[in-house]
Write a structure and sequence with these properties.
alpha/beta, eight-stranded mixed β-sheet, 37% helix
Length: 279
Amino acid sequence: MSKIVFLDVDGTLIDYETKLPASARQAVDIARANGHQVYICTGCSKDEILQRNLCDLDGMILGNGTYVEDHDQVIMHRAMPLEEVKKVVQWCRDRNLAFYLETNSGVYCNDQMIQDGPDVMVKYGQGKGADLSQAKEKANEFIGSFTLIHGDEFYREDVNKIDFIIRDYQDHLDAIKDFPHLAHNTWGGKGELALFSDLGPTGINKKYAIEVLLDYLHADKKDTISFGDAKVDLSMFECCAYNVAMGNGGPEIKAAADYVTSDVNDDGLYHAFKYLKLI
């Protein structure tokens, strides 16, 4: 029986330096040749994904579930309503937070992100195992890919989600209190340490997007497998029949998994595909 496989990207399909292990590419290629379907399911925007050298895939779920694509066909796109974008942008401005908007066409940030972003992304890289020089290089690449905008330029109707740097975890808790109807996640440092918080459209997460795609494909959940490394992937685990945590993942995702494979850079994806007889 063919399976439908959903892969988180950073820390699962690729490492935290955005490199795709050769064994992971091989695993996906062989699995697809064997008749299985493989989709990425990530918080990244389409612009970010298109900048990365990934393997061939059957489709993608992006923006933590806001965008779904099957073989280049757009199945769903649920951007944040403009009025919500305006409110969150103003909230970030009032708190002098570094923030950016994720859209399919690009990532757009404020001046504070240009100032604060590099140091925070160095912490991100080091927390995921990179040495200082590697972390600085990737941090500069990440922030350098952003487009700096000002004023009303932030008021866009194509925003998948809004990310901001957490100066203190209270910032994330305050966002939940002030925007309880929006989807909230944290991401960033070693394990489940929060460096960033993000806000997305109401009711949207990876689970919701997978269910939309399965309905479109007329597929059954019993044939699904998901792979992840962080708390944001838990909604995938709620939805799929079998779930794999990466060895580099946090304790919560490992506790929820049916199987824990090795680290992303220790052929984790390949070993799991082989264990599950996908290859």
